Amino acid sequence: MKPVRGLVISVLFVAALVTAAVVGFATGTRPVLGLDLEGGVEVTLTAPEGTPPDVMARAIDNIRNRVDSFGVAEPQIFVSGVNIEVQLPGLARGTIEPRGREFCVASGSGVDLGCFPTRDEAEARLQETGQDRLLELIGTTARLEQREVLSVLGPGDPGFAKQEVTCSAPEERLTEACSFDALADRKVWFLDRDGQARYHLGPVEITGDRIAEAQAAYQTVSQTNLQAGWIVTFRLTGEGADEFADITERLVGKQLAIVLDEEVVSAPTIEEKIAGGSGRITGSFTEREAKDLATVLNAGALPVELTKSEVRTVSPTLGEESLLQGLLAGAAGLGALALYLAFYYRLLGVVTWLGMAIWAVLALGIVSLLGRTAGYSLTLAGVAGLIVSLGITADSYIVFYERLKDEVRHGKTPRSAVAPAFARAWHTIVAADIVTILAAGVLYALAVGSVRGFALTLGIATGLDMFVVYFFKRPTVFLISRSNRLMNLRGFGLSSGVAAEPVPAGPIAGGAR
Amino acid sequence: MSFLETFRGHQLPGFDIVGQRRRWFAFSGALIALSLVGVLGIRLEFSIDFEGGALISYPDSRGLTAEDVQATLAEFGRSGAEVQVVGGGEITIRTSSLNELGTERTDLLDALAEQAGSASEDMSVQDVGPTWGGQISRKAFQGLIIFLVLVSIYVAFRFEWKMAVAAQAALAHDLIVTAGIYGLVGREVTPATVIAILTILGYSLYDTVVIFDRIKEHTVSTAMIAKESYAGVVSISLNETFMRSVNTSLATLLPITALLLFGGTTLKDFAFALFVGVLSSTYSSLFVASPVLAVLKEREPRYRQVRARIQARQAAGRTALREVAPEPAVVDTAAARATTRPTPRGRPSGRRPPAKRKRR
C-alpha cells in the first residue's frame, strides 16, 4: 500500500521534528526573552531621514563595537530604515559577590563597580550603572573632527573654574547654534574624556570622513622609538592626504586634538609633516584605548548624527509579570479553543488538539532556534503574534472539516470525501495563508521595534500552520478515513453531516445524527 | 431547532444576503458613519509613543499620594507632570522627555524610588523623542499602502480584479469601524493599536479570500451560473461557508478574549482593537465583500444576459404546465435558491430520503 506508507512516513517525520523540539527544549534551547519580558534597557536611535543603508551599517558597527568595548553582556542591535534599536535584555547581568560583610558589584565585563553594605544597594548599583553606561555610550554621535590645540587648562591652572565649556548645558546642546556644522568654523572650549582638562581648540581642520582606515598596533622599542606601547595608525583618502599634509606641515610641534562628539579623545603632538596620507597617533594608550580609538576612527567616519528616539527601561519584576500574563492568556485561549473544537467537531476536534499541540511545540522550537542562531528575542508583541495565529491555525482545520461535511452532505461517503475535501481545503488554506504571510512580510520589512517581533512570529506561525496541515493533518485524517470503525464511531464529528442533508422534516430531525 | 441544525451543519442557513443587500449596505453605511464620528468627532488620545515624553512606572510601598510625587518632581523642575497612583501601590508618571537631563536623569529616578521605598531597579521608564511617533505612523501608513498594492495584485492574479475591489471595500469598512469604535470607547492609541489594525488588514482579507475561493470554485464552469445567475452563486457560496465563518471567528476570538481578560494593559488595548476588528472582518466578508462582488459582476453583459434568461425561464415556468418539472421551482429570491441548490440531483429540498451510511 504505497500511499499509506507515504502517509505514515509523513506522520513519523512530524513526530521526529516534535521530538527534536521537545528534546531541544529539555536540554536548554529555550526562547530568548525580549527585554519587556525579562527586564532591561532598549534604546532606539534615529539617523536623519534618507541616510543611505551603507552608512547605517557602519553606524551599527560603530555602536556594536562601543557596546562590546564597554563590556555589557549580549547586546542585540537591529536596524530598520534609519532606526537603530539597541536592546540589552537583562542588562544588569553583572555579578554581586559577598566579600566579608559587603556586597561587591562587578559588571558583565568584570569591571569593579564598588562594594555596598546591603545586597539591595548593590543590586541597585548594578542596574543603574548598566543603564547609565548604555545611555552614555548611546548618547555619543560618533562625529569625529580634528582641531588645533590652542591651549589646555588643567584643574590646577588659574582661570580653570571660570572657563566655560562650549555648548555644555543640556538645553543648549539641542539648539542649532550648537550643531556640528555651526561649531565647525568657531574656536571652542571642549573637555577631555575625563571631563577634567579643558582644551581651547581652533576651527575644524579635517573631519573623520577623510579617514580610510585606522588600526591599533603595538610598537616595540627601537632606535627611533624609545617607549614601547600601543599606537594607532591611520590611512587617509587621497583628498584627505593632501589636506592632512598641509595641516601637519603647519602644525609641526603642536598638538592636534582628535575630538569625538565635542570631547577631546586625545591630543597627540605632530612630530613631522605627514605627507603620505598615513600617520600614527601616539600617546600612552592601553591596548583597549588604542583599539577603541582605531574603532572610533574607522566607524566614526560616518557623517550622521543620531538622536535618541526612544529609551525604555523595563524592570525585571514588570517583565516577569508581563510574561506570566502572556502565558496565562495563551493557555486560557488555547484551552477555550480546544474545548470548543472538541465540542463542535468531536473526534476530529481531538485530531485538531494533536495538530495544534504539534504546531505549538514546533513554533516554540523555531522561536528558540532563532534565539540561538539569529539573536531573535521573544517580546510581548511576539507572544501576541503567536496567540493571534492560534486563530489562523484553528481556521485551517475548520476549513477542512467544513469542506469534508460539504462533500458528505453532497452524497459522498466519508472515506471518498477526504481526498477531494482536502484538495479543495488545501487550495483555500494556501490562498488565505499567503495573504497573512504577505501582511507579516510587509510589516516586518517596514515596521520598527515591537511591530517586527509581532510580524515575525505571525509569519512563522502561519508558515508552520501550512506545514502541519500538509504533513500531519492530511495523513492523519486520510489514515483515520481508512478505518471503518473510527469513521462510524458515534462521537465522530463527520457523521453529523452524513445524515444531515437534507434536513428531514418532523421527528427525524432530532435523530439526525 | 433550525438554528441548532444550522449550527451543527445539518442544513445551510439560507440567508438571502445578496438579495437583501440594500438593507445590509445601509446598515454598513450607518456603522461607518458612526465610526467616522468616533475617529473625527472625538479627539483620539495618543500614547507618549506618538506624542513624545517619558512614562515612569514603579511600585510604591509607602502609600504616597499624587501630591507627594508632584512635590519630588517639582524639585527637578518637572511640576507639569501627570501623576497617577493606581490602587495596588503602583505609580505612573507622564512627563516630558528626560533625555536632555543627562546625569540628573538618574538623580530624579533615584529620588522617586527612594520616596516610594522601592529599589531603583523596579522602575520602568519609557522615554520617547518627539519625532518618534510621526515616524511610527508614517511607517504604518507606508506598510498599509504597500500591503494593499501587493494584496490587490495577488487577489487579482489568483482570483480576479473585481474580487480585489470587493475585498478592499470590506477592508476599508473594517479599518474605519475598528478605528471608530476604538475612538468611541476612548482607549489610548498605542503602537500596539497600530499593530492590531495592521493585523486586522490581514485577517479581513484572509476571511474574504476564503469565501471568494468558494465562489471561484463554483464559477469555474458556467453550468451553475447559468442556473442560478452570478448573484445566486455568490449567495450559495456565502451560505455554504457561513458556518466556517462563524466557527473561524469564534476560534480567533477565543484567544483574543483571553488576551483581553488576562493580558496586561498593553495587551488589553491590542486585544480590544483585534476583537472589534475580527468581528467586523467576519461581518464584512459576508455582508459587504460578497454583495459588492455580486453587484460588480452582475453588471457584466454576459451575467446580465444570464439573469434575463433565468427570469424568462421562471416566468415561463410559472405559466406553462409542469413539463419542465426537473427544473427546480425557483423563487425570485436568492435565499430560496440557496437552500435548494446543494442537492446534486437538483431536487427540491426536503424530499430526499436521508443519505445512507455506506459501509464498504
Could you explain how this protein is built, in words?
The complex is a heterodimer of chains A (513) and B (360). By secondary structure, chain A is an alpha+beta fold. Chain A contains 14 helices and 15 strands. The longest helix of chain A has 58 residues, at 316-373. Chain B folds into two domains: 2-46 and 132-302, Multidrug efflux transporter AcrB transmembrane fold (Up-down Bundle), CATH 1.20.1640.10; 53-128, Alpha-Beta Plaits. By secondary structure, chain B is an alpha+beta fold. Mean pLDDT of chain B is 76; it is low at 324-360. In chain B, helix 2 packs antiparallel against helix 10, helix 7 (161-185) runs antiparallel to helix 8 and helix 9 (222-262) runs antiparallel to helix 10 (265-298). At the A-B interface, helix 4, helix 5, strand 15, helix 9 and helix 10 of A face strand 2, helix 5, strand 5, helix 6 and helix 8 of B.
Give the chain pair forming the largest contact, with residue counts.
A-B, 107 and 102 residues
Number of domains of chain B: 2
Integer average pLDDT of chain A = 75
Uncertain ranges of chain A: 495-513
Q: What CATH architecture of the largest domain in chain B do you see?
A: Up-down Bundle
The CATH homologous superfamily name of the largest domain in chain B equals Multidrug efflux transporter AcrB transmembrane domain
Structural class call of chain B reads alpha+beta
**Rg from Cα of chain A:** 33 Å
Strand content of chain A: 15-25%
Instruction: Tell me the distance between the termini of chain A.
Output: 33 Å
